[in-house]
Amino acid sequence: MTLTDTTASATAAPSGAVLDGPALWSAQAQMPAVLGRQLVIERAEGSYLFTTDGRRLFDGTAGLWHANVGHAHPELAQAAFDQMRTLETFHIFQRFANDRAIELAELLAGISPIPRSKVLLNSGGSDAIDLACKLARRHWQREGRTSKQIILSREHAYHGLHAYGTSIAGLDFNREGLGTESLVPETARVSHDDLAQVEAAIERIGAERIAAIVSEPIQGTGGVNPPAPGYLEGLQRLAREHDILLILDEVITGFGRTGEMFAAERYGIEPDMITFAKGVTSGYAPLGGVLAAPRLWEPFYVDAPDTPVFRHGATYAGHATAAAVAIANLGILERDGLVARAAELEHVLRRELEGLAARQEAVVDVRVAGFLGGIGLDERIANDRVADRAIEHGFITRPLRGNTLQLSPPFIVSDQEVVDYVAAIELAITEEAAR
Ligand code: PMP
């Protein structure tokens, strides 16, 4: 099963007629397959969602890996309310700034695994990727090494769906049907797990043409794939040897998901840039950005008349209310010890998933890194059908590439809730296997 397969399972015999429905065009959906069976969420509390048709669902994926402190947290609502009453936002172009954006950037620079980081802000993960790739190209143009333009990314990679994310996706179906192979032509895919192949690709393309390599520390949408032992370290070594910038996409892993504030710390990596989003606000406000190393920002800070400008910025870059929510969210993570709690929950999840794999023949493998798990299913059992069954039992899991199910609950769940969650998925697998 693949992501494309999961969106293609129409329920009734198709008539060929154009169907109508709500004005909202759903994301990543084959519309006839979802019309009439949408799960409309109207309310949430902690780790539970409530739908308009009366269901109570355990949010086992933290939405799209974002709701790390759980849903409807009153302190985050209060932070947004207070900020909006004071200053909803003001842009940060040229001389302007707002105090919340400044405060958030200081906080992020303080916890960044990259020493002396500067912080670029915008509205989400796809934005962050576009920004990081542009900054990588801008860096080499400014250095006069104008041929260094290609962005490498890994097979099975997901980096959002803006122009760069679409172009560097290692999930090919996200690039299909656009009339061109790649919106940004200067990209190439490399092996997701074999360093010798990565090195061969660098040599074939030529380091003088490569600006950066982008990698998720743990691939998310591509199927919850922790890095092969030594892979990230090796990628860093190759990047340094060949003078290629290393961009770590921590949109999923940032802010505690791996039991460290950033996965860079878990794997001992010091990239040139880190992209972040999701967990920075736990999804309460759209916000993302880039942490950039001194070699990238210093030339733009030189006190000289011809110092260049990096032409980035958007209306909502440094949005004051989003920043206020992020500050409050980071405060909750720290006060409630939620990063350490995610590290504890990793052990519970691993224990439960290993038990599941030992009991269930239909489970080919389980993958856990941080409080982030994937269940790989035998090809005879379709992950999207198991996910649908789990919903009937009140638990959300998500089908991903490689016939995988995603497990990434909020960090506030109890050990028992993890046990119950895995048990519900096991029941769904057993039912599907018996079908
Ligand atoms: N990078 C990674 C690793 C992601 O998982 C995602 C979103 N799932 C993105 C980038 C894109 O983020 P957004 O959806 O906020 O644009």
TrEMBL record:
Q: Which cofactor does it need?
A: pyridoxal 5'-phosphate
Q: Which UniProt keywords apply?
A: Aminotransferase, Pyridoxal phosphate, Transferase
Per its record, what are the GO molecular function terms?
Answer: pyridoxal phosphate binding; transaminase activity
SUPFAM superfamilies tied to this protein: PLP-dependent transferases
Q: Which CDD domains match?
A: OAT_like
Q: Which PROSITE patterns match?
A: AA_TRANSFER_CLASS_3
Q: Which residues cross the membrane?
A: none
Q: Which Gene3D superfamilies match?
A: Aspartate Aminotransferase, domain 1, Type I PLP-dependent aspartate aminotransferase-like (Major domain)
InterPro entries xrefs: Aminotrans_3, Aminotrans_3_PPA_site, PyrdxlP-dep_Trfase, PyrdxlP-dep_Trfase_major, PyrdxlP-dep_Trfase_small
Q: Which family does it belong to?
A: Belongs to the class-III pyridoxal-phosphate-dependent aminotransferase family.
Provide the protein name.
Adenosylmethionine-8-amino-7-oxononanoate aminotransferase
Q: Which organism is it from?
A: Agrococcus carbonis
